[in-house]
Amino acid sequence: MSSTTESDFQELLGIVRAAFDLQAAAALLEWDQETYMPEAGTEARARQIATLQSTSHELFVRDRTGELLERVKDEYEDSMSFRASIVRVAARDFDRARKLSPELVGEIAQTTTRAKVSWRHAYSENKFNRFAGDLERIVGLCIQKAEAVGYAEHPYDALLEEYEPGATAAQVKKIFDDLRTSLVPIVRAIEGAPQPRNAFLFHSYDADIQWDFGMEVLRDIGFDFQRGRQDISVHPFSTSFSMSDVRLTTRVHERNLTSGLFSSLHEAGHGMYEQGIDPELEGTPLAQGTSLGMHESQSRLWENQIGRSRSFWAGYYRDLQSRFKQNLGSVSLEDFYRAINRVQASPVRVEADEVTYNLHIMLRFELEMLLIEEKIIIQELPELWGDRMEGYLGIRPESDTDGVLQDIHWALGAIGYFPTYTLGNLMSAQVFACAKSDLGNLDEQIESREFAPLREWLQANVHHWGRKLSADEIIEWMTKGEISAAPWLDYVSQKYGDIYGSLVPDS
Ligand code: ZN
């Protein structure tokens, strides 16, 4: 390697690090806003975050970055080395960022700022029409964005790529078709079966005791509190400013025993992904989860495959019971396990159980495709939403607030985002099946609260790569196959067949 190439690479690294640092500073301000900031600080905070983000963006998309990438790119082709990976990922980010004109970026920012307000009004007043105009503009801007970024087959590919690099609309459609065919009959069979009782989960449970129990579980599963912390916020989330400073938030409801614990497990799954990235990648754009779907696979794995499993509660139920003797004293482990896995169709996605959840996502994906293909008009959405929900879940939302208006994502301009939730669920089952076959007696390990082997396996097979490999490359490397619905369907049929009896319809 020539010394010019070396100095070019160092200059490039300096630029991407500085851009990344500004993003981390913005993320810290956002974390603070959701946890400790007094509400009066909202306006100034929004400006400060926007300043940091746009400064980061401007620094990165300068012509100089392009020149440097051009000069070093041949030096590092086709290699998984640190340098080659930096160049590859930076070139991809740069390419995408440069294709979006400052005018389009500005218009998207302005429209979504306005849309967040109109969405909030529409949501609280149950009036879709208050949001319809802004949504129409957002769909138009997303189509423009797709055209600007470019795509091989479908404009939706260009939108999806922002959240799930490597995935395409055709691939998602095929996976969802497979999933739908098997899942709708399973949901129907469960609906016809007797429901486990779960009212005891909603009695009064002291918030401090819940918090302490949750913290103990997080320590056991191996979330590293030397390099992270947990706080309270209205909407649980996780974020990180470096792999050695990862923040989780949760909420604790006195009248809901498990909501806080499961959101803690979920966010810790995200957090351990960030903490598990190869330290060599620290402070670079590679030091992040590779896609939203892969990120979600890690959170769902800890929340569902572990946290809602029989083996987990075989290890923890006695402990929980002793902390809440009055409420749980007469509830058996088996009754508790069934209660936390009760399946009940709800019109609201965030209240959905793990079986019905993916049907909520499918519905959104299908409507987004129709919008991007300009096959429907905005005014048709509430009706189409209701029809599809009835087809998939057998229920119809009673209001737009519980239907088409329930999520903020479209107001944020995030069309192409929803599929990552289901891809995450499906990948979590693929990853977990591989871990099980590699680790042998995983169920016994979970039952005896031994989580280190699983966590280390996840780190070696998923986390340490950061963005060096894409999600489909990780799945391919791990399973010798593609992202697929089959392992998740096996998991669900087995688990819920056991809870609800046979899930195969009679005729
Ligand atoms: Zn998540």
Structural write-up:
This protein is mainly alpha-helical. The protein is 63% helix and 3% strand. The protein is built from 21 helices and three strands. It has a three-stranded mixed beta sheet with strand order 1-3-2. The longest helix has 33 residues. The radius of gyration is 23 Å and the shape is globular.
How many distinct beta strands?
Answer: 3
Poorly predicted regions are none
| Distinct ligands, ions and cofactors found in the model | zinc ion
Using the CA coordinates, give the radius of gyration.
23 Å
What spatial order of strands do you see in the largest sheet?
1-3-2
Helix and strand string, N-terminal first? HHHHHHHHHEEEHHHHHHHHHHHH
Structural category = mainly alpha
- Describe the biggest sheet? 3 strands, mixed
Q: What is the first-to-last residue Cα distance?
A: 69 Å
Task: State mean pLDDT (0 to 100 scale).
Answer: 94
Quote the beta fraction. under 5%
Per DSSP, the total helix count is 21
The shape, in one word, is globular
Helix content: 55-70%
